[in-house]
Amino acid sequence: MTMTMNAYEDAGKMTKEAMDNTLKSFAAMTKGFQQISAETADFTKRSYDHQTAMVEKLFQARTLDKTIEVQSEFAKTAYEAWVAQMTRMSDIYAGIAKETYKPFEQTANSASTTMSQAARDTTSQLSQAADDTADAAQQAVDTVEQQAHETAH
To answer: What domain range is 53 assigned to?
Structure first.
């Protein structure tokens, strides 16, 4: 009966811990998505400002060579900015994945510990039951031998 109650208590603790960790995981994911949203909005604003500056330079260009130079410089800096942004975004996504998984890692470790303890308890109880059965069987054999000995004499 005690083992059953402990199992229910352990299951209840594990369920509560799993729910708490799920909520922590969702909070980490939400925070990460907010970070992605803010980073995307910031990048969009920087890109717009960069494009606006490029258009102003194009209007000020007096020669074809200057126009090509402005466009080439814009293409180069836009590409570099895009690569840097994608690197930042991939770092953010990796961070989200790590932070989102952390609570489940705790749940898995806790469940593993609980199950290991349950297995040790069960093994101990089975060992004790086997010892008790062996003792009872030996007593039965001793009793039968004693009765056979008494009957023979």
So the answer is: 2-152
